[in-house]
Write a structure and sequence with these properties.
Strand order of the largest sheet: 2-1-3-4-11-10-9-6-7
Number of strands: 11
Order of helices and strands: HEHEEHEHEEEEEEEHH
Largest sheet: 9 strands, mixed
Helix content: 10-25%
Length: about 270
Amino acid sequence: MIRHTCLTFASLLLWTVGLAAAQPELTLKHIVLIVGENEYHTWETLPEFAEKELKPRGLKVSLVIAPPSEGDPNFTNWQAIKDADALVVSVRRRTPPKPMMDLIRQHVAAGKAVVGIRTASHAFDAQPADEEHAAWPTFDVDVFGMKYEGHYGNKPPRDPPTIIKAVPEAVTHPVLAGVPSDEFRVTSHLYKNRKPAGTVTPLLRGWVEGRAEVEPVAWVFTGNNRRVFYTSLGNPDDFNLPAFRRLLLNGTLWALNQSVPPAERPQ
């Protein structure tokens, strides 16, 4: 069952202001959530995740958000990107204002941490509506180290689920601490990600039940002295899975070069 945190767009803006004001300045790692998509309700799930998983660990969190209407480029609070230690990106085919895109490019060029979920692989692959907005069609290759080439379109319960399993060579990677190494099923339809850069380390792989094709589903990218984590998971059902929440927490902490909580030992 899909569970949403019922946050209005206006309440999200108040959440951003209140959360930033509640945190002491200069002493905390600063995570900026960039949300601009119309399919997966990350305008609800990511702030809820930040409240429960990131803020209690002493991390400052700000929200940069655009309305959940297709292609809307009107992001708010984007000046927060300037002071970010990590960007968590959940955007789908938007063209932000040029000054906002300049800050994103500066963040990446400075070697700072980036975390991407789901549509972040094609976050800025859209045609700018005018000269005041900017695209970055190669964001997938430049930042995540792999090329997004569409998806299989399987959408349970009508279609077979996606099966996820840890890459055997990666089971000891810190990002997989506490993430099951056995197979588990998700309702996110499977993305196609190809042509990995040499410094990509695959962590999870997936396939559509009953099909032979296997795709990388989560990985880290360390090119250009940067720590980047990406997963193509991230629909609302995924946020209800302890395995996914742990994966996203670990990936975010790893990207910030902070310690990942150890896996709980079986009783």
